[in-house]
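Input record, target 12 of the design panel.
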């Protein structure tokens, strides 16, 4: 099976006289539908619209003709799996003053919004990743990005999050949102990214 673009597919094992795999293409959390190619030795089917479905019984038989299933049929077939699907990760970016671990004023309210989302999810799987712009040398910038990540992690711990739930990392200037030349001050690169799973 080969993926292209963004997709979310449901794979189900169907046991109705013979076994095989039913593949149904459904939108991702943002509503986007990608494409998936279902291939056996004997043929291939491309699924490219919401609800598109095919059945692959054996490797020596081509997948069935594409059928489009309505949402009721998809719920009947895969409702339990869909109900137990984890929520997609939440992403936040907190920004800092140049050369320091001091938050920009606009970023402070986002910390509480983020903490509420963590509480609602009951999450204990959070990445806190520090970054810097390219002003100064990379060694110094790695230190600044670590201090930024640690400062956000400390705020989260202060408001009740367990340190065991945090994966704190830092990349210095090595993973910019906006690529720049050396010694260019780019505010969007002076950040901590938080991913809540």
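The sequence produced for target 12 reads:
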């Amino acid at each position: 099976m080969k993926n292209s673009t963004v997709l979310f597919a449901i794979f189900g094992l169907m046991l109705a006289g013979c076994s095989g795999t039913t593949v149904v293409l459904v939108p991702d959390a943002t509503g986007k539908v990608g494409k998936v190619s279902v291939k056996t030795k004997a043929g291939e089917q491309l699924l490219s619209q919401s609800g598109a479905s095919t059945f692959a019984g054996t490797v020596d038989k081509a997948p069935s003709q594409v059928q489009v299933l309505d949402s009721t049929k998809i719920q009947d077939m895969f409702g339990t799996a869909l109900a137990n699907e984890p929520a997609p990760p939440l992403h936040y970016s907190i920004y800092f003053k140049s050369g320091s671990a001091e938050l920009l004023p606009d970023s402070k309210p986002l910390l509480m919004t983020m903490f509420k989302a963590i509480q609602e999810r009951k999450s204990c799987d959070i990445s806190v990743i520090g970054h810097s712009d390219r002003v100064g040398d990379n060694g110094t910038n790695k230190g600044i990005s670590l201090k930024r990540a640690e400062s956000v992690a400390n705020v989260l711990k202060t408001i009740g999050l367990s340190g065991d739930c945090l994966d704190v990392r830092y990349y210095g200037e090595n993973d910019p949102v906006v690529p720049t030349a050396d010694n260019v001050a780019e505010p969007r690169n002076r950040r901590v990214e938080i991913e809540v799973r």
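Residues 138-158 form the longest helix (21 residues).
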